[in-house]
Amino acid sequence: MPQEPIDAAALPADEARQQATALRSEARARYIERLYSLGPVVGLVLLCLAATALNSDFATLDNVMNVLTRTAFIGIIAVGMCFVIISGGIDLSVGSMAALIAGAVILFINAASPALGSPLLAVLLGAALAVVLGAVFGTAHGLLVAKGRIEPFIVTLGALGIYRAYLTYFADGGALTLDNDLADLYSPVYYASWLGVPVPVWVFLAVALVGALILNRTAYGRYVQAIGSNEQVARYAAVDVDRVKILTYMLLGVCVGIATLLYVPRLGSASPTTGLLWELEAIAAVIVGGTALRGGAGTITGTVVGAILLSVISNVLNLTSIISVYLNAAVQGFVIIVVAFLQRGRR
């Protein structure tokens, strides 16, 4: 609501000063929030300019599409992670979850193709299975957090070990590989393009748009932000906090399933190293994008920019010799720590 104009002459001097101070504080808070929202965009622009100056190949269309395609997997997961972090939670298991889902999808498609007599149907059902498994795993996390009253950190840390251990068991310590004919049938999901833009980029865009719509235009999105700001107040306001938390983790699981069904045809295999450190990249993308680490505030747009920014950093390390490409995870870790430090006083 716009502030009513203040008639300083009609107010006692002390009250007028208090009103003026309050208005200045409110304006300063809005300015700081605006800086937080613009920071990732400005950083991305400056990084792209520096990357182009260091290596002209960076600005080529092929490289840009490569960066966006590689961003798609983490970006889709980061959209779901944004909801979880805004609600005041965290999920450390997304990389291991993606690995187990990828392995399960490969096993299912390999077995279903001869059983159904239709490789295409097997691939379609396998893609659907990825989303269903993601939703089931996410719902399990939400139930343990909301109904079991276990800290999200503990739940998802335990799940991280469970998912990767089961994949290693199913793969017998090696790799699960999609049969050649099935891999060729599935490959367009990753390698095909539409209007010159790779399919994963289109899916990433669609997920981001739907995520932004849900967060900003629905009651559920407002509840997520309210819970992250103050869970107790949200309960007093008759918000079904447990239900919202369960839906939030389920949404993240669905995003992991979508990212995985796009990832499987890239290599056509799943191993104990699949999805390694994806949780670090997803969390980094959300935090770099301006979402408050303590919850309560964040945007999908910022998350998308953060995911692209991290991919650009990785791409720059590949194109230049500033530092070793093997230090990419270290760079992301430093970024999380620095941004968290800068957010110390933010709620």
Can you give a write-up of this model?
This protein is globular. 74% of the residues lie in helices and 2% in strands. The strands form 2 sheets. The protein has a two-stranded antiparallel sheet with strand order 1-4. The chain is built from 14 helices and 4 strands. The chain has one domain: ABC transporter involved in vitamin B12 uptake, BtuC, CATH 1.10.3470. The protein is mainly α and 347 residues long. The chain has helices at 13-54, 61-86, 94-116, 119-146, 152-170, 180-186, 188-191, 199-217, 219-229, 231-236, 241-267, 278-288, 300-319, 328-342, and strands spanning 176-177, 193-194, 197-198, 269-270. Helix 8 crosses helix 9 (219-229) and helix 9 packs across helix 11.
Lay out the secondary structure.
Blueprint: H1 13-54, H2 61-86, H3 94-116, H4 119-146, H5 152-170, E1 176-177, H6 180-186, H7 188-191, E2 193-194, E3 197-198, H8 199-217, H9 219-229, H10 231-236, H11 241-267, E4 269-270, H12 278-288, H13 300-319, H14 328-342
Antiparallel strand pairs: 1-4, 2-3
Helix pairs in contact: 1-13, 2-8, 2-9, 2-11, 2-12, 2-13, 3-4, 3-5, 3-11, 4-5, 4-11, 8-9, 9-11, 12-13, 12-14
Task: Produce a short descriptive summary.
This protein is mainly α. The protein has helices spanning 13-54, 61-86, 94-116, 119-146, 152-170, 180-186, 188-191, 199-217, 219-229, 231-236, 241-267, 278-288, 300-319, 328-342, and strands spanning 176-177, 193-194, 197-198, 269-270.
